[in-house]
Design brief:
The protein has 371 residues and is of the alpha/beta class. The chain folds into 2 domains: 172 residues, 3-Layer(aba) Sandwich (Rossmann fold), CATH 3.40.50.1970; 192 residues, Dehydroquinate synthase-like, alpha domain, CATH 1.20.1090. The protein is built from 13 helices and 13 strands. The strands form 4 sheets. It has a 7-stranded mixed β-sheet, with helices on both faces. A two-stranded antiparallel ribbon has the order 7-8. A two-stranded antiparallel sheet has the order 10-11. Strand 5, helix 4 and strand 6 form a beta-alpha-beta unit. Helix 6 packs antiparallel against helix 7 and helix 10 packs across helix 13. It is globular and about 60 Å long. The termini are far apart. Bound molecules: glycine.
Length: 371
Amino acid sequence: MNETVHVGLGARAYDITIGPGLLAQAGALIAPLLKRPHVAVITDENVGRLHLETLRKGLNSNDITLSSLMLPAGEATKSWPHFERAVEWLLEERIERSDVLIAFGGGVIGDLAGFAAAVLRRGIRFVQIPTSLLAQVDSSVGGKTGINAPQGKNLIGSFHQPSLVLADTDVLGTLTKRDYLAGYGEVVKYSLLGNSDFFQWLEGNASRAAEGDMAARIAIVKRSVEMKADIVERDEKEHGDRALLNLGHTFCHALEAATGYSDRLLHGEGVAIGCALAFELSARMGLCSQEEPSRVRAHLREMGMKVDLSDIAGDLPDAEALMRIMAQDKKMMGGVLSYVLVRGIGDAFVTSDVDPEMVRGVLQGALNARG
Ligand code: GLY
Protein backbone atom coordinates (compact mmCIF):
# COMPACT_ATOMS: atom_id res chain seq x y z
CA MET A 1 0.00 0.00 0.00
CA ASN A 2 3.07 2.30 0.27
CA GLU A 3 3.52 4.98 -2.37
CA THR A 4 6.87 6.45 -3.36
CA VAL A 5 7.69 9.84 -4.84
CA HIS A 6 11.24 10.43 -6.07
CA VAL A 7 12.94 13.81 -5.72
CA GLY A 8 15.40 13.85 -8.64
CA LEU A 9 18.25 16.05 -7.49
CA GLY A 10 21.22 14.13 -8.90
CA ALA A 11 23.70 13.35 -6.14
CA ARG A 12 21.18 14.66 -3.60
CA ALA A 13 18.20 12.64 -4.90
CA TYR A 14 15.95 10.83 -2.44
CA ASP A 15 12.62 9.05 -2.05
CA ILE A 16 9.54 10.05 -0.12
CA THR A 17 7.69 6.95 1.07
CA ILE A 18 4.04 7.48 1.98
CA GLY A 19 1.65 5.08 3.69
CA PRO A 20 0.30 3.72 6.98
CA GLY A 21 2.47 1.76 9.40
CA LEU A 22 5.80 3.20 8.28
CA LEU A 23 7.11 3.70 11.84
CA ALA A 24 6.94 -0.07 12.30
CA GLN A 25 8.81 -0.54 9.01
CA ALA A 26 11.39 2.18 9.75
CA GLY A 27 14.21 -0.30 10.46
CA ALA A 28 13.92 -2.01 7.09
CA LEU A 29 13.49 1.30 5.25
CA ILE A 30 16.41 3.08 6.93
CA ALA A 31 18.88 0.15 7.21
CA PRO A 32 20.25 0.59 3.65
CA LEU A 33 21.48 4.08 4.62
CA LEU A 34 23.40 3.00 7.72
CA LYS A 35 27.11 2.27 8.12
CA ARG A 36 26.53 1.11 11.71
CA PRO A 37 23.23 -0.02 13.30
CA HIS A 38 22.60 3.07 15.40
CA VAL A 39 20.72 6.34 14.80
CA ALA A 40 20.21 9.60 16.71
CA VAL A 41 16.62 10.82 16.90
CA ILE A 42 15.55 14.39 17.65
CA THR A 43 11.88 14.77 18.50
CA ASP A 44 9.59 16.86 20.70
CA GLU A 45 7.84 15.95 23.92
CA ASN A 46 4.39 15.46 22.33
CA VAL A 47 5.56 13.29 19.43
CA GLY A 48 8.01 11.46 21.69
CA ARG A 49 5.27 10.58 24.16
CA LEU A 50 2.89 9.37 21.45
CA HIS A 51 5.15 7.68 18.92
CA LEU A 52 8.78 7.18 20.01
CA GLU A 53 8.21 3.65 21.31
CA THR A 54 6.65 2.60 17.99
CA LEU A 55 9.65 4.01 16.13
CA ARG A 56 12.07 2.35 18.56
CA LYS A 57 10.41 -1.05 18.01
CA GLY A 58 10.43 -0.52 14.25
CA LEU A 59 14.17 0.18 14.32
CA ASN A 60 14.94 -2.56 16.87
CA SER A 61 13.25 -5.15 14.67
CA ASN A 62 16.17 -4.61 12.28
CA ASP A 63 18.69 -4.55 15.17
CA ILE A 64 19.07 -0.77 14.94
CA THR A 65 19.43 1.04 18.27
CA LEU A 66 18.60 4.68 18.85
CA SER A 67 19.46 7.49 21.21
CA SER A 68 16.92 10.27 21.45
CA LEU A 69 16.66 13.91 22.44
CA MET A 70 13.22 15.32 23.28
CA LEU A 71 12.87 19.07 22.92
CA PRO A 72 9.87 21.13 24.06
CA ALA A 73 7.01 21.26 21.53
CA GLY A 74 6.28 24.61 19.87
CA GLU A 75 7.69 27.32 17.65
CA ALA A 76 9.88 28.77 20.45
CA THR A 77 12.07 25.66 20.15
CA LYS A 78 13.26 26.83 16.70
CA SER A 79 15.86 29.09 18.33
CA TRP A 80 19.59 29.30 19.07
CA PRO A 81 19.39 27.87 22.63
CA HIS A 82 17.60 24.68 21.56
CA PHE A 83 19.70 24.40 18.42
CA GLU A 84 22.88 24.64 20.51
CA ARG A 85 21.52 21.98 22.85
CA ALA A 86 20.76 19.67 19.89
CA VAL A 87 24.20 20.05 18.31
CA GLU A 88 26.02 19.56 21.62
CA TRP A 89 23.89 16.50 22.39
CA LEU A 90 24.82 14.98 19.00
CA LEU A 91 28.52 15.57 19.80
CA GLU A 92 28.12 14.07 23.30
CA GLU A 93 26.46 11.06 21.68
CA ARG A 94 29.54 10.79 19.41
CA ILE A 95 27.43 10.91 16.26
CA GLU A 96 29.90 10.55 13.41
CA ARG A 97 30.11 12.05 9.93
CA SER A 98 28.83 8.79 8.40
CA ASP A 99 25.91 8.41 10.85
CA VAL A 100 22.27 9.27 10.22
CA LEU A 101 20.10 11.64 12.25
CA ILE A 102 16.32 11.23 12.29
CA ALA A 103 14.14 14.35 12.50
CA PHE A 104 10.96 12.97 14.07
CA GLY A 105 8.19 15.54 14.43
CA GLY A 106 6.44 18.45 12.77
CA GLY A 107 7.92 21.42 10.94
CA VAL A 108 9.77 22.84 13.97
CA ILE A 109 11.68 19.63 14.65
CA GLY A 110 12.28 18.95 10.94
CA ASP A 111 13.75 22.41 10.40
CA LEU A 112 15.87 22.43 13.57
CA ALA A 113 17.17 18.86 13.28
CA GLY A 114 17.81 19.28 9.55
CA PHE A 115 19.89 22.38 10.27
CA ALA A 116 21.79 20.49 12.99
CA ALA A 117 22.51 17.75 10.42
CA ALA A 118 23.66 20.41 7.94
CA VAL A 119 26.35 21.79 10.25
CA LEU A 120 27.37 18.85 12.48
CA ARG A 121 30.91 17.81 11.48
CA ARG A 122 30.32 19.94 8.33
CA GLY A 123 27.24 17.93 7.41
CA ILE A 124 25.79 14.50 8.12
CA ARG A 125 22.86 12.71 6.46
CA PHE A 126 19.39 12.87 7.93
CA VAL A 127 16.00 11.22 7.50
CA GLN A 128 12.77 13.16 7.88
CA ILE A 129 9.90 11.35 9.61
CA PRO A 130 7.25 14.10 9.54
CA THR A 131 4.34 13.68 11.93
CA SER A 132 2.07 16.63 11.08
CA LEU A 133 0.15 17.02 7.82
CA LEU A 134 1.97 20.31 7.23
CA ALA A 135 5.37 18.63 7.60
CA GLN A 136 4.34 15.64 5.45
CA VAL A 137 3.17 17.76 2.52
CA ASP A 138 5.61 20.64 2.76
CA SER A 139 8.42 21.24 5.24
CA SER A 140 9.98 17.75 5.24
CA VAL A 141 10.51 17.91 1.47
CA GLY A 142 12.89 20.21 -0.36
CA GLY A 143 15.77 20.68 2.07
CA LYS A 144 14.94 24.01 3.69
CA THR A 145 16.32 23.81 7.24
CA GLY A 146 16.86 26.43 9.90
CA ILE A 147 15.78 28.31 12.97
CA ASN A 148 14.15 31.66 13.74
CA ALA A 149 16.03 34.82 14.72
CA PRO A 150 14.72 37.61 16.96
CA GLN A 151 14.54 39.61 13.69
CA GLY A 152 12.19 37.14 11.98
CA LYS A 153 11.21 33.58 11.07
CA ASN A 154 13.58 31.18 9.28
CA LEU A 155 16.33 33.79 8.89
CA ILE A 156 19.17 31.42 9.91
CA GLY A 157 19.54 28.17 8.01
CA SER A 158 20.79 26.15 5.12
CA PHE A 159 19.59 24.08 2.18
CA HIS A 160 20.33 20.49 3.22
CA GLN A 161 18.33 17.73 1.53
CA PRO A 162 17.25 14.69 3.57
CA SER A 163 18.36 11.23 2.42
CA LEU A 164 14.86 9.78 2.85
CA VAL A 165 11.41 10.98 3.93
CA LEU A 166 8.97 8.58 5.62
CA ALA A 167 5.43 10.02 5.77
CA ASP A 168 3.47 7.61 7.99
CA THR A 169 -0.18 8.47 7.33
CA ASP A 170 -1.35 6.55 10.44
CA VAL A 171 0.32 9.20 12.58
CA LEU A 172 -2.05 11.84 11.15
CA GLY A 173 -4.79 10.11 13.19
CA THR A 174 -3.34 11.58 16.40
CA LEU A 175 -3.53 15.22 15.19
CA THR A 176 -6.20 17.57 16.51
CA LYS A 177 -8.75 18.64 13.91
CA ARG A 178 -7.31 22.16 14.06
CA ASP A 179 -3.75 20.95 13.35
CA TYR A 180 -4.95 18.68 10.54
CA LEU A 181 -6.85 21.54 8.89
CA ALA A 182 -3.91 23.91 9.31
CA GLY A 183 -1.77 21.42 7.36
CA TYR A 184 -4.56 21.17 4.81
CA GLY A 185 -4.02 24.89 4.12
CA GLU A 186 -0.73 23.94 2.43
CA VAL A 187 -2.45 21.17 0.44
CA VAL A 188 -5.01 23.61 -0.98
CA LYS A 189 -2.12 25.97 -1.76
CA TYR A 190 -0.53 23.35 -4.10
CA SER A 191 -3.76 22.91 -6.01
CA LEU A 192 -4.32 26.66 -6.28
CA LEU A 193 -0.83 27.43 -7.51
CA GLY A 194 -0.50 24.73 -10.13
CA ASN A 195 -3.25 22.17 -10.61
CA SER A 196 -6.94 22.99 -11.06
CA ASP A 197 -7.79 19.27 -11.49
CA PHE A 198 -6.33 18.64 -8.03
CA PHE A 199 -8.44 21.50 -6.62
CA GLN A 200 -11.55 19.96 -8.19
CA TRP A 201 -10.58 16.59 -6.70
CA LEU A 202 -10.16 18.23 -3.28
CA GLU A 203 -13.61 19.82 -3.57
CA GLY A 204 -15.04 16.30 -3.89
CA ASN A 205 -12.73 14.31 -1.60
CA ALA A 206 -10.96 16.46 1.02
CA SER A 207 -13.79 16.08 3.57
CA ARG A 208 -13.41 12.29 3.40
CA ALA A 209 -9.68 12.67 4.04
CA ALA A 210 -10.29 15.03 6.97
CA GLU A 211 -12.64 12.44 8.48
CA GLY A 212 -9.87 9.83 8.34
CA ASP A 213 -10.27 7.99 5.02
CA MET A 214 -6.77 6.50 4.59
CA ALA A 215 -6.79 6.18 0.80
CA ALA A 216 -7.83 9.83 0.47
CA ARG A 217 -5.14 10.92 2.96
CA ILE A 218 -2.45 9.02 1.05
CA ALA A 219 -3.67 10.58 -2.20
CA ILE A 220 -3.51 14.07 -0.69
CA VAL A 221 0.03 13.65 0.64
CA LYS A 222 1.23 11.98 -2.57
CA ARG A 223 -0.19 14.60 -4.95
CA SER A 224 1.16 17.43 -2.77
CA VAL A 225 4.71 16.07 -2.56
CA GLU A 226 4.71 15.22 -6.28
CA MET A 227 4.01 18.88 -6.95
CA LYS A 228 6.63 20.01 -4.45
CA ALA A 229 9.23 17.56 -5.82
CA ASP A 230 8.59 18.82 -9.33
CA ILE A 231 9.15 22.45 -8.30
CA VAL A 232 12.20 21.67 -6.13
CA GLU A 233 13.77 19.69 -8.99
CA ARG A 234 13.40 22.75 -11.24
CA ASP A 235 14.60 25.28 -8.68
CA GLU A 236 16.24 23.78 -5.58
CA LYS A 237 17.45 27.07 -4.07
CA GLU A 238 14.52 29.35 -4.89
CA HIS A 239 15.98 31.46 -7.65
CA GLY A 240 12.74 31.15 -9.66
CA ASP A 241 9.77 28.76 -9.68
CA ARG A 242 10.15 27.66 -6.05
CA ALA A 243 8.83 31.08 -5.05
CA LEU A 244 5.42 29.87 -6.32
CA LEU A 245 5.27 27.81 -3.12
CA ASN A 246 4.92 31.14 -1.31
CA LEU A 247 1.35 31.64 -2.59
CA GLY A 248 -0.55 33.24 0.29
CA HIS A 249 2.61 33.57 2.39
CA THR A 250 3.23 37.33 2.15
CA PHE A 251 -0.18 38.02 3.71
CA CYS A 252 0.24 35.01 6.03
CA HIS A 253 3.59 36.19 7.42
CA ALA A 254 2.18 39.66 8.14
CA LEU A 255 -0.81 38.12 9.95
CA GLU A 256 1.43 35.72 11.90
CA ALA A 257 3.64 38.64 12.99
CA ALA A 258 0.56 40.72 13.86
CA THR A 259 -0.76 37.92 16.07
CA GLY A 260 2.63 37.37 17.74
CA TYR A 261 3.24 33.90 16.18
CA SER A 262 0.75 32.65 18.76
CA ASP A 263 -2.05 30.14 19.00
CA ARG A 264 -4.38 32.83 17.59
CA LEU A 265 -3.23 31.87 14.10
CA LEU A 266 -1.41 28.68 13.08
CA HIS A 267 0.88 28.94 10.04
CA GLY A 268 -1.33 26.79 7.81
CA GLU A 269 -4.41 28.80 8.84
CA GLY A 270 -2.56 31.95 7.80
CA VAL A 271 -1.68 30.30 4.47
CA ALA A 272 -5.37 29.59 3.78
CA ILE A 273 -6.40 33.17 4.62
CA GLY A 274 -3.39 34.45 2.65
CA CYS A 275 -4.42 32.41 -0.43
CA ALA A 276 -7.95 33.86 -0.22
CA LEU A 277 -6.43 37.38 -0.04
CA ALA A 278 -4.03 36.68 -2.95
CA PHE A 279 -7.03 35.56 -5.06
CA GLU A 280 -8.96 38.67 -4.04
CA LEU A 281 -6.01 40.89 -5.00
CA SER A 282 -5.67 39.08 -8.34
CA ALA A 283 -9.39 39.56 -9.06
CA ARG A 284 -9.21 43.28 -8.18
CA MET A 285 -6.21 43.64 -10.51
CA GLY A 286 -8.31 42.09 -13.29
CA LEU A 287 -6.08 39.02 -13.54
CA CYS A 288 -8.92 36.57 -12.87
CA SER A 289 -12.71 36.66 -12.56
CA GLN A 290 -14.42 37.29 -9.20
CA GLU A 291 -15.78 33.71 -9.33
CA GLU A 292 -12.29 32.35 -8.63
CA PRO A 293 -11.83 33.86 -5.11
CA SER A 294 -15.45 32.96 -4.34
CA ARG A 295 -14.85 29.32 -5.26
CA VAL A 296 -11.66 29.17 -3.18
CA ARG A 297 -13.40 30.71 -0.18
CA ALA A 298 -16.39 28.36 -0.54
CA HIS A 299 -14.11 25.31 -0.37
CA LEU A 300 -12.18 26.60 2.65
CA ARG A 301 -15.48 27.36 4.42
CA GLU A 302 -16.85 23.92 3.60
CA MET A 303 -13.75 22.38 5.20
CA GLY A 304 -14.38 24.42 8.37
CA MET A 305 -11.22 26.47 7.94
CA LYS A 306 -10.38 30.06 8.75
CA VAL A 307 -11.00 32.15 5.61
CA ASP A 308 -11.48 35.78 6.67
CA LEU A 309 -9.71 38.18 9.01
CA SER A 310 -12.86 37.99 11.18
CA ASP A 311 -11.96 34.34 11.86
CA ILE A 312 -8.87 35.52 13.79
CA ALA A 313 -9.71 36.16 17.45
CA GLY A 314 -8.74 39.48 19.03
CA ASP A 315 -7.61 42.79 17.58
CA LEU A 316 -5.58 43.22 14.42
CA PRO A 317 -3.49 46.25 13.40
CA ASP A 318 -4.86 48.55 10.68
CA ALA A 319 -4.06 48.13 6.98
CA GLU A 320 -1.18 50.61 7.19
CA ALA A 321 0.52 48.66 9.97
CA LEU A 322 0.00 45.36 8.11
CA MET A 323 1.61 46.95 5.03
CA ARG A 324 4.60 47.99 7.16
CA ILE A 325 5.00 44.42 8.43
CA MET A 326 4.79 43.10 4.86
CA ALA A 327 7.62 45.43 3.87
CA GLN A 328 9.92 43.38 6.20
CA ASP A 329 9.27 40.23 4.17
CA LYS A 330 12.17 38.01 3.05
CA LYS A 331 10.86 38.36 -0.50
CA MET A 332 11.87 42.04 -0.68
CA MET A 333 14.37 42.60 -3.49
CA GLY A 334 15.90 46.03 -3.95
CA GLY A 335 13.18 47.52 -1.76
CA VAL A 336 10.34 46.01 -3.86
CA LEU A 337 8.10 43.25 -2.54
CA SER A 338 7.22 40.37 -4.84
CA TYR A 339 3.83 38.66 -4.73
CA VAL A 340 2.49 35.36 -5.96
CA LEU A 341 -0.69 36.15 -7.90
CA VAL A 342 -3.04 34.04 -10.02
CA ARG A 343 -4.66 34.08 -13.42
CA GLY A 344 -7.13 31.51 -12.05
CA ILE A 345 -7.22 28.36 -9.92
CA GLY A 346 -4.08 26.35 -10.74
CA ASP A 347 -2.26 29.17 -12.54
CA ALA A 348 0.01 31.20 -10.25
CA PHE A 349 2.93 33.45 -11.15
CA VAL A 350 5.41 35.70 -9.33
CA THR A 351 5.43 39.45 -9.90
CA SER A 352 6.63 42.62 -8.25
CA ASP A 353 4.39 44.71 -10.48
CA VAL A 354 1.71 45.36 -7.86
CA ASP A 355 0.34 48.78 -6.91
CA PRO A 356 0.61 49.05 -3.09
CA GLU A 357 -2.72 50.95 -3.15
CA MET A 358 -4.41 47.76 -4.47
CA VAL A 359 -2.91 45.75 -1.62
CA ARG A 360 -3.97 48.37 0.91
CA GLY A 361 -7.50 48.26 -0.57
CA VAL A 362 -7.71 44.48 -0.22
CA LEU A 363 -6.51 44.61 3.38
CA GLN A 364 -8.84 47.50 4.20
CA GLY A 365 -11.79 45.63 2.68
CA ALA A 366 -10.93 42.49 4.66
CA LEU A 367 -10.55 44.49 7.89
CA ASN A 368 -13.84 46.36 7.28
CA ALA A 369 -15.62 43.02 6.85
CA ARG A 370 -14.65 42.25 10.47
CA GLY A 371 -17.24 44.87 11.44
N1 GLY B 1 7.77 25.85 2.12
C1 GLY B 1 8.22 26.48 0.94
C2 GLY B 1 9.42 25.83 0.36
O1 GLY B 1 9.80 24.77 0.78
O2 GLY B 1 10.00 26.37 -0.54
